[in-house]
Design brief:
- With 397 residues, this protein is of the alpha/beta class.
- The chain contains 14 helices and 14 strands.
- The strands form two sheets. It has an eight-stranded mixed sheet, with helices on both faces. Strands 11-10-9-12-14-13 form a six-stranded mixed sheet, with helices on both faces.
- It starts with a strand and ends with a helix.
Length: 397
């Protein structure tokens, strides 16, 4: 089965094309495509297929334009003969509220995603747009939405609820959902292969968007995200955890809710605190050059990670392995070292030499204590492809 896997951001479009066998034993990557700065000024795009590559700059007005461009390039590079070869489309969907796991996209799914767009404003709208664009471009090709919340549904209810009136939970769905499910599921799956003795894991997905999960026997038992993807560990430009009653102070200062949401959702996190930008590499460099505000942002980011690692050590009653993934987790040796500092009481001891020399694109074990510390590149797309095959295999012929 030829499956196109779609991974969207508010201004980005990533896709991978897989040839998946029905028995799930063979998975061949046919092509990778990316497009950036959608809806902004000219952005980069690229497509790779086997040993062939095409790239360039383009003014992409919306996600539909990015889809059109990348699919045409996939055909031009002979990854498939024509779009009719694509048999299914899998989406790394974010928030479906009461709908969780992987499901076939229909009008009900789209309507529910619309209902929860207010708590996933950076994610749901572009996914809805893309689903509709693909339906127009490839009518009759089944679509599957693999919601990031699905992996976290087995978390005990006591870790899902807030201290709010129960009817908010029961009637409005106000609770912690957890996200980055595909990434944490991949880490659990991969660690079972490369380190089968490691049953209790703390998975640290640190990148433009960040989350930490406690995993036991392959199942998520805790996640740093809350009801929305704006919460938990603070992100490149999103706030992370924030006291809701601070809104009163901001409103009294004269700011409107629209301005506050903009500041918290697009100008917060690393970008807002550092005053430099959302890229950890630039903020780290500024901090190394003596910028105190940048140093504060790096230190606060590390503290937010350590906060959840400490919490999940308690949830898991200890840990067998600490795993770093995502752009920051894989590529920043200084962040890994800072996160692991003074955790020797829990058996977490980093080997400084291994940590400095690890390649971000390879799996590496970098511990010097009783707890295994790994750097493992994630692969969310292959998880989505597998879920898509599973969903469609359950459909009646």
């Amino acid at each position: 089965m030829i499956i196109l896997v779609v991974n969207l951001g508010s201004t980005s479009f990533k896709c991978r094309l897989y040839d998946m066998s029905d028995d799930g034993c063979h998975e061949t990557l046919l092509a990778i495509g990316t497009a950036e700065r959608i809806g902004q000024l000219s952005g980069k795009w690229s497509v790779e297929a086997a040993d062939r590559k095409a790239d360039g700059m383009a003014d992409l007005s919306d996600h539909a334009a990015a889809i059109e461009l990348l699919l045409n390039q996939v055909i031009r590079l002979d990854a498939v003969a024509s779009l009719s070869d694509v048999e299914a489309i899998g989406f790394k969907a974010v928030h479906g509220g009461p709908i969780s796991g992987a499901v076939k996209v229909d009008d009900h799914v789209l309507a529910t995603m619309e209902q929860f767009a207010d708590v996933a404003p950076q994610h749901n709208p572009p996914y809805i747009e893309a689903m509709k664009a693909f339906a127009a471009k490839l009518p009759g090709v089944p679509q599957v939405a693999a919601f990031e919340t699905g992996y976290h549904q087995q978390i005990p209810l006591a870790r899902q609820v807030y201290g709010v009136p129960y009817e908010w939970i029961d009637q409005l769905g106000v609770r912690r959902y957890g996200f980055h499910g595909a990434s944490h599921r991949y880490i659990a799956t991969r660690m079972a292969q490369i380190a089968p003795d490691c049953v209790k894991l703390i998975s640290c997905h640190l990148g433009g968007s960040c989350s930490i999960s406690g995993i036991c026997d392959g199942q998520s038992v805790a996640n740093s995200f809350g009801m929305t993807a704006q919460s938990g560990v603070f992100h490149s430009s999103r706030v992370g955890d924030f006291d809701v009653f601070a809104l009163m102070k901001l409103l009294e200062s004269g700011m409107s809710l629209d301005v506050i949401w903009q500041k918290l959702g697009k100008e917060g996190g690393l970008k807002g605190l550092s005053g430099i930008g959302p890229d950890m590499r630039e903020v780290e460099q500024a901090a190394a050059n003596g910028d105190e505000q940048a140093k504060l942002a790096v230190d606060a980011f590390v503290e937010s990670c350590r906060h959840y690692i400490g919490a999940f050590l308690a949830v898991l009653n200890g840990v067998d392995a600490l795993v770093f993934t995502g752009g920051i987790g894989q590529h920043s040796s200084t962040i890994r070292a800072a996160v692991c500092a003074e955790l020797d009481f829990a058996g977490i001891c980093l080997d400084e030499t291994r940590n400095r020399t690890v390649s971000g694109s390879a799996e590496s074990r970098i511990d010097a204590g009783s707890v295994a510390i790994w750097v493992v590149p994630t692969n969310e797309e292959i998880i989505i492809a597998r879920q898509t095959v599973e969903v469609l295999s359950r459909q009646p012929a």
